[in-house]
Design a protein that fits this description.
199 residues, alpha/beta, 5-stranded parallel sheet, 5 strands, 58% helix, globular, binds D-altro-hept-2-ulose 7-phosphate, binds zinc ion
Length: 199
Amino acid sequence: MTALIDRVQASFLASAETKRDCAAQLAPVIAAAAERMATALLDGRKILTCGNGGSAADAQHFSSELLNRFELERPALPAIALTTDSSTLTSIANDHHYNQVFSRQIQALGQHGDLLLAISTSGTSPSILHAVEAAQEREMGVIALTGRDGGQLAQMARPEEDLVICVPSQSTARIQEVHLLTLHCLCDLIDQQLLGGLE
Ligand SMILES: O=C(CO)[C@@H](O)[C@H](O)[C@H](O)[C@H](O)COP(=O)(O)O
Ligand SMILES: [Zn+2]
């Protein structure tokens, strides 16, 4: 039992340490991403989100906080998680390729000025790389939430149009934990810009 308890405590401390290490490094790019999101939303654009596994859950978590609410009451905001429609996902994977499950939806739904929030802890998942390619073809901006060295996802980012938020950890779990905190920071900053007058 003691070994199990020790292991839990080690995970809590490792998570806290990763977050503390990232605070100064990631705050400027998270703030920049929140500014782009608030500007896009005020311009009547929408945010599409995608990810696999735990990152699919993160994509949905974030879109629901825009569509419904985060901590403050405010008007509903337009966001679509591309991870939720099982008929669409299974038919694209079945008839085409799993790689295209998000890109094909972006070709249908994405419009100039919309943003794609693309989440991949490795930065190497082909479905996410195809999604980014499709968004760039649709003249959308991309916010990439990634980890490790950012993989090909970070390399695909265009210097002016896209932003990369990369958690410099090798652990998928630790990266995901910082991603969730990052998503809550984005929600908070969007609310502050839309309602609270923060610049
Ligand atoms: O949540 C976890 C691991 O913590 C897994 O479900 C994980 O998200 C999946 O293996 C994903 O397929 C990994 O994809 P990615 O983050 O490398 O793009
Ligand atoms: Zn997980």
